[in-house]
Amino acid sequence: MRPSWPPPGMQPLNRGRAEWWKVDLVAGITVAAYLIPQCMAYAELAGLPPITGLWAILPPLLLYALLGSSPQLSVGPESTTAVMTAAALGPLAAGDPGRYAELASLLALVVGGLCCLGAWARLGFLADLLSKPILVGYMAGVAVIMITSQLGRICGLTLAADSIGGQIQELVQRHAEVHGPTLVMAAAVLAFLIVLQRRWPSLPAPLLAVLLATAMVAALQLDRQGVAVIGPIPAGLPQLSLPKGETLQTLRSLLPTAAGIALVGYSDNVLTARAFAARNGYRIDANQELLALGAVNLGNGLLQGFPVSSSGSRTAIGDTAGSRSQVFSLVAFLVVILVLLVLRPVLALFPKAALGAIVIYAALRLIDLGEFRRLRSFRSSEWQLALATLVGVLVTDLLTGVALAVALSVIDLFSRLVRPHDAVLGEVPQLAGLHDIHDWAGARTLPGLVIYRYDAPLCFANADHFRRRALAAIEAETTPVAWFVVNAEAIVEIDISAADMLIELIQELRHRQIVLGLARVKQDLYGQLVRAGLLEAIGADHIFPTLSSVRQEFLRSRAPACASAGVSDDVQTNDVQSSGAAPAGGSLHE
Hints:
It is built from 25 helices and 8 strands. The longest helix has 33 residues, at 248-280. By secondary structure, it is mainly alpha-helical. It has 2 domains: 18-237 and 275-369, no CATH class; 421-577, Transcription Regulator spoIIAA (2-Layer Sandwich). The protein has helices at 12-15, 20-45, 50-55, 58-67, 79-93, 97-120, 132-149, 151-155, 164-173, 180-199, 205-220, 248-280, 286-302, 312-320, 327-347, 352-364, 369-378, 380-395, 398-418, 463-475, 496-511, 523-531, 534-538, 547-564, 569-577, and strands spanning 75-76, 309-310, 422-428, 431-436, 449-454, 483-487, 515-519, 543-544. The strands form 2 sheets. Strands 4-3-5-6-7-8 form a 6-stranded mixed sheet. The chain has a two-stranded antiparallel sheet with strand order 1-2. Helix 5 runs antiparallel to helix 12 and helix 18 (380-395) packs antiparallel against helix 19 (398-418).
């Protein structure tokens, strides 16, 4: 891939305004305030010391800003890959913390290598299976997960359950243990965010909320009253190193987990990036995202980290704070460096309840009820697909939910390919052109001629359906059919199964003394007809450039029969045009 400057995630600055730097500065500080405790927690979730979480955020913040195509995506430690890391490394490390850390770095290197290999093979096209309904349902599901994940934090509880239903049930059962000051703090911050964003949307509400909440903790000594704060942050920077002493057998044992993490991470990256791109009017490069994900994991593998992906919550917080480019990630990178070296005591009093309220506020903005209503009014199957994605994400997990939605999306697409719309075209009184006779009252075909349109490429999956529908169109005519012409404008290609079906259809129609022709054949399809022997079977004189030429040639072919019956061409033409048909060459519509 050819490098570009500025990097893809920075390019919005070229089209933006100078004040965007200030907005990204505020967004970067706000995201850093959230990611510091979050990444420390994810390190523990992965089975590593908390400081590893801060080390594991540094390469992603820097490398994604240089390579990523989304100006808003926040990449780094997140819960799903952390859990998968812990599940894979626990049995292999056998309780040895040093070996565990080495295996975590090796796993990150393997994940990075697989992603880079996929980018080299240009497998980013797989992201095209993630349609708009999937994005809408996925983000709504992620929002619900984000909200429920903060219930314990805003209530001052440590919830043992890890499922959504389990967390809610446990919270109800332990309602008497809810810490009042913590809940009040969270509610006040949430209300502050909602009011401030509605009345003064240009202000950095999340950052102001965190700073004010920290000031309240310091002034009222709320930490002594049980309000949880981030607490002491350990110092130190990671060292560049390679995993040592690992065997080929270990590498093989990590490969399936690495492939799973790469798949989960890439799906999460693209889904989140595309969702925010759709909301804010820009586009991402799916293959570039795969390369960027590979680079950040390789960086983490070299700097004593663990596998990472993108964070929907941090991206949402950055979006809420007004992020416009990856400058916000570079700002967050510098903040983390300063925290590790200098500013650890300043962040120690950040209340966790305030951070939880910020996450809930950001999550609420991800649930787009208007988009659900738009999908329902457009097509029920699109709305059902969004709901299926939402339910799948909530009932199973992110990867399974997305896989289920993709499968349903492919099934829906395949059903439209196997049973596409088709039409018999005829003339409509007082309306130029040819139209679907079932859509217009008074529409009729020219006696003896059937012009049939099939709105899909012909392949093995729909070849028999095409044949049955074509014969049904012939049988529906009250006048014996002499010509059956396929309007091929939507048939961009055929496969060998469809070619064999067309040869059989030609033979069957010839037995009935019906001529088969094709109209509006594209050049690529014409080449396939030649290679399949269909052009010879149909006859070059029955390949028509336009529908009007079909009509003209059919009338000309019928002229001798009409003349022998004592009917002139003028009478025949007038008889057709008395129905209100437009002159040949009129505009074509459905």
